[in-house]
Design brief:
Strand order of the largest sheet: 1-2
CATH superfamily: Ferritin, core subunit, four-helix bundle
CATH architecture: Up-down Bundle
Distance between the termini: 22 Å
CATH topology: Ferritin
Number of domains: 1
Number of helices: 5
Order of helices and strands: EEHHHHH
């Protein structure tokens, strides 16, 4: 699997996954904007570097963090329960990669004195299509699915839809983001998740 560099330059594994029309099973909402948060003690702390990031960067990271964390949970379930060794290996690689990416994204937001999460009020994001997330019921369905071939099919279908959401969110950042590290991450997500979607399709039983 292709490697990647984190913000600190350390390598991380990248996993590949596939396309299986499951978008209907997932609530994959378009990315939405957020405003830059002001800090009350700005005069007492070192301010973020002016002009190095924009609202799109902040919104992308705030949306991508929970989306990634859901993906880590899905992958962890598959690494433990999937019957196909290739599915387990893929899930383990995804879990490691996306855990590293979450750490980088949180670090950037902290460096910029920005909150780690977007406004949870869906109405606040309506003008941007809502928040990217997988329906909690989808996660609950996978948690209830016992180990075995049936779990593999459910995971592959659900995770395909989830990774389509990651690609859509990353494309928004690639188009309008400013911070080089975040734009590079978005480009990498588009490439790696698109490859993962293809791999997931190949792993689907009876495809």
């Amino acid at each position: 699997m292709a490697g990647r560099l984190t913000r600190t330059g350390r390598p991380a594994n990248a996993a590949g996954l596939p396309v299986a029309g499951i978008l209907a099973a997932c609530l994959l909402l378009a990315g939405c904007g957020s405003t830059l948060a002001a800090t009350s003690d700005a005069a007492e702390t070192a301010p973020p570097l002016a002009g190095t990031f924009n609202d799109t960067d902040v919104m992308f990271l705030q949306m991508a963090i929970p989306q990634h964390e859901q993906g880590v949970e899905l992958a962890a379930l598959a690494a433990d329960r999937a019957s196909d060794a290739d599915v387990r290996d893929l899930a383990a690689a995804v879990e490691a990669t996306q855990t590293d990416e979450v750490a980088d994204m949180k670090e950037w937001l902290r460096d910029w004195d920005q909150p780690l999460s977007a406004d949870p009020d869906a109405h606040a994001h309506a003008g941007h299509g809502g928040m990217h997330a997988t329906d909690p019921e989808v996660l609950a369905t996978l948690r209830r699915t016992p180990a075995g071939p049936g779990f593999d099919r459910t995971f592959l279908n659900l995770f395909t839809g989830h990774q389509h959401g990651a690609v859509d969110l990353a494309r928004m950042e690639a188009r309008a983001g400013k911070y080089p590290g975040a734009v590079e991450l978005a480009d990498r997500i588009v490439d790696s998740r698109t490859a993962e979607i293809r791999q997931l399709a190949r792993l689907l039983p009876g495809r």
